[in-house]
Write a structure and sequence with these properties.
This protein has about 80 residues and is an alpha+beta fold. It has one domain. About 45% of the residues lie in helices and about 20% in strands. The chain has a three-stranded antiparallel sheet with strand order 1-2-3. The longest helix has 15 residues, at about 5-15. The relative contact order is 0.15.
Length: about 80
């Protein structure tokens, strides 16, 4: 392994350890395999969205709540499902 790659690995570890100061989510989209169907859950502009029927009437669902649990403290304040 060359010294450039070793330096990048060390920098990646540092960024991961300093995630609160370095990493900000703006948007992303994931597919979740539900018990009956696949659902697309997304995070955009500080808000969760899902294509399932429950989300349409409640503005939250098991899919958005699952992603919030997966990401833990990685999302900014107020981004809870």
């Amino acid at each position: 392994m060359d010294s450039g790659t070793i330096s990048k690995i060390q920098k990646a570890k540092q960024y991961a350890e300093e995630r609160d100061e370095r990493i900000r989510f703006h948007s992303f989209k994931v597919e979740i395999s539900g018990e009956n169907n696949q659902h697309v859950t997304s995070y955009e502009g500080g808000a969760w969205h899902c294509d399932c029927e429950f989300y349409k009437t409640h503005a939250h669902c098991s899919h958005t709540m699952a992603m919030e649990r997966v990401l833990g403290q990685m999302l900014p304040e107020g981004a809870s499902a």
